[in-house]
Design goal:
0% of the residues lie in helices and 45% in strands. With 129 residues, it is mainly beta. The strands form two sheets. Strands 2, 4, 5, 6, 9, 10 and 11 form a seven-stranded mixed sheet that branches. A four-stranded antiparallel sheet has the order 1-3-8-7, with no helix packed on it. Strand 5 and strand 6 form a beta hairpin. The radius of gyration is 13 Å and the shape is globular. The N and C termini lie far apart (40 Å). The relative contact order is 0.31.
Length: 129
């Protein structure tokens, strides 16, 4: 089981940008779909985006479409979430996770947290002026 380590996040102003990283300590992620989720206190963990690392195909929740971009590096050991035009409502702890082996990213259903089993440690994103 690959161990996911997250970095990035922090404080940004409304309209600003951040890049979140989700790495595997050098192991290839090319057999996985990786999801990005976020959670605020008292709320369910919400899927925002996912990527099939083997071919780079992606899917986005409507709430972030056009503002967030998920990608992977050429070595396919790190997945990124570029978050642009940030809004205060984007404030949350962001998590990456590997999907279960049979899962493929590509539909709204692929952002269900039940389809993911191996989570990074989370990173805080705070959007405030």
């Amino acid at each position: 089981q690959v161990h996911l380590v997250q970095s990035g996040g922090g404080l940004a102003q409304p309209g600003g940008s951040l890049r979140l990283s989700c790495g595997s300590s050098g192991l290839s992620l090319d057999v996985y779909a990786i999801g990005w989720f976020r959670q605020t206190p008292g709320k369910e963990r919400e899927g925002v985006s996912c990527i099939n690392v083997w071919d780079g195909s992606t899917y986005y929740a409507d709430s972030v479409k056009g503002r967030f971009t998920v990608s992977r590096d050429n070595a396919q050991t790190t997945v990124y979430l570029q978050v642009n035009n940030l809004k205060p409502e984007d404030t949350a702890v962001y998590y990456c996770a590997t999907a279960k082996p049979e899962e493929i990213c590509g539909t709204r259903n692929s952002l269900s947290k039940a389809k993911y089993y191996n989570w990074g440690q989370g990173t805080q994103v705070t959007v405030a002026s």
